[in-house]
Amino acid sequence: MLNIVIFGGPGSGKGTQSEKIIEKYGLEHISTGDVLRAEIKNKTELGKIADSYISKGQLVPDELIIDILASVFDKKKDSKGVIFDGFPRTIPQAEALKKMLSERGTSINAVVALEVADEELVIRLLNRGKISGRSDDNKETIQQRLNV
Ligand code: UDP
Ligand code: MG
Which ligand 1 atom sits nearest the alpha carbon of residue 89? Predict the structure, then answer.
């Protein structure tokens, strides 16, 4: 497998660049943020918990997100590879990812880090907030997400 982690602040373009990489290399996309937002939209138990963190700009607890990640990955493990977008975000998550992949006989081949100045991120996220309808694309929450 060709497994890639795409890393960067909120609004740095992880989702946008993931789409281009996926098209070029035929990979599958795992965006933990998208998974959580789908749960919120479907009003599941997990969605309710996730919403309480996301709307405050905080991280969903490691144990929860690590479990979700493993089950999403297992649905895609017969693919050419996976791009992890928005995960890992903490050291325990990175360690869990490494372990999860090694138990499945694979690993991360590359990390792409998108570096964008905070002032630019704020401009982009406020603009995105006008159309995204995301509960976290507002001034106070953006600042909290940058800190986290
Ligand atoms: N989030 C999280 N863990 C994840 C992915 C997302 O806790 O693995 C939460 C967190 O609250 C974050 C929000 O979802 O601020 C949005 O994350 P996403 O990666 O979708 O958006 P981005 O930060 O790239 O704008
Ligand atoms: Mg994103």
Answer: 8
Ligand 1 centre distance from Cα of residue 92 (Å)? 16
List of domains in the chain: 2-147 (3.40.50.300)
DSSP conformation letters of the chain: ---EEEEE-TTSSHHHHHHHHHHHHTPEEEEHHHHHHHHHHTT-HHHHHHHHHHTTTPPPPHHHHHHHHHHHHHHHTTSS-EEEES---SHHHHHHHHHHHHHTT----EEEEE---HHHHHHHHHHHHHHH--TT-SHHHHHHHHH-
pLDDT per residue rounded down to tens, the chain (148 residues):
999 999 999 999 999 999 999 999 999 999 999 999 999 999 999 999 999 999 999 999 999 999 999 999 999 999 999 999 999 999 999 999 999 999 999 999 999 999 999 999 999 999 999 999 999 999 999 999 999 9
